[in-house]
Each structure stands twice: as C-alpha cells, then as structure tokens.
Amino acid sequence: MRSRTILVIGYGNDLRGDDAAGQRAAAHVHAWALPGVEVRTLHQLTPELADPLADSDRAIFLDAHPVSNGTAVRIRSISATTATTRFAHAYDPQGLLTLTHTAFGRSPEAWWITIPALDFAFGAPLSPLTERGIADALTAIRPLLAPSRPAASITPGSDASRTVT
Predict the structure, then answer these.
(1) Which is nearest to 5 in space by CA: 60, 43, 46?
(2) Domain that holds residue 127
(3) For the whole model, what pTM was predicted?
(4) Where residue 117 sits, what CATH number does that domain have?
(5) 57 lies in a domain?
(6) What sign does the dihedral 10-13-17-18 (CA atoms) show?
(7) How many domains does the chain have?
(8) Is residue 9 part of a domain?
(9) Is residue 13 part of a domain?
(10) At what angle do helices 128-141 and 21-31 cross, to 10 degrees?
(11) pLDDT in the model for residue 152
(12) Could you tell me if 55 and 163 are in contact, meaning their C-beta atoms sit under 8 angstroms apart?
C-alpha cells in the first residue's frame, strides 16, 4: 500500500466542448506538480478508481455542469452513502465513494467541484464562460490541496457547499 495522497480526478468528454472542463482543470493542477497530489484525467468515473480512492486521504472530483444548474462554480463536500451500491460501468462521485467504502472499509474526505458549461457540441472549443469557470475552480481548489487543511476551514454554512462567482 502506498502512502496516502490527495487524489484529483478530472473527468468529462474532451471531444465535446465544455464537457472537457474537469479534465482541463485537472491538467492545470497536474502542472503545479504538488507533492502528495496525484492527478487523473478520465472520460468517466469507473469502479477501478475505488482502489486509489481507498489509499487517499482526500479526493477532489472536477466536472462540468450545464448552465441550467447555474453559472457559478459549485463546491460540495460529499461522502459515501448508506445506499446499496449497484455495479455499473460509470459512477457519479458519491456512488464511487460508496463503492470504495463498501469494498475497502473506508473512503476519503471528498469534494465535488463542478464548472459551468454552455456548449457540449462535438469539436467545440471551451466557451468563455467555462474558461472563467476553470480559473475560478483552480482558485477554489488551492486550499483543498493543503495536506493539513482542516475541513471546517473551507466549508462556509451548514450544508458544506458553496458557489464561486
């Protein structure tokens, strides 16, 4: 078993315009080359991620959300649920944390950061809205990458979620 890390997972379809936001944000985090931070860029979340998640102290999931869900970056603290995990080829972050907890008896502290996305057309470039969202998400991610950061320091309000505009 390797030493525990912070695992950053950026996912989405890099062929479909703004859906690439999670992967693009993760690539920026990777370029920072921070010690103890492992970065993965993927098309989707799969059950194989349960093993590295179990070996992590913290996980940060990066994805796009359609503008119909708001034009701000959304930051949510998430955790495994008590719901029964159904096995599938793709998961959402909370389902993957539940699978991790079921399989390994633990799951990391986790955050789901979503970036507003406008254009999901094949071959489209990132929209200016999504480019700004990536920059805002990267600003919000920085404190989460500090290994000794107490969870309470990033979560204003009682619902452990916020938006960045």
Answers:
(1) 60
(2) 19-164
(3) 0.86
(4) 3.40.50.1450
(5) yes
(6) negative
(7) 1
(8) no
(9) no
(10) 40
(11) 44
(12) no
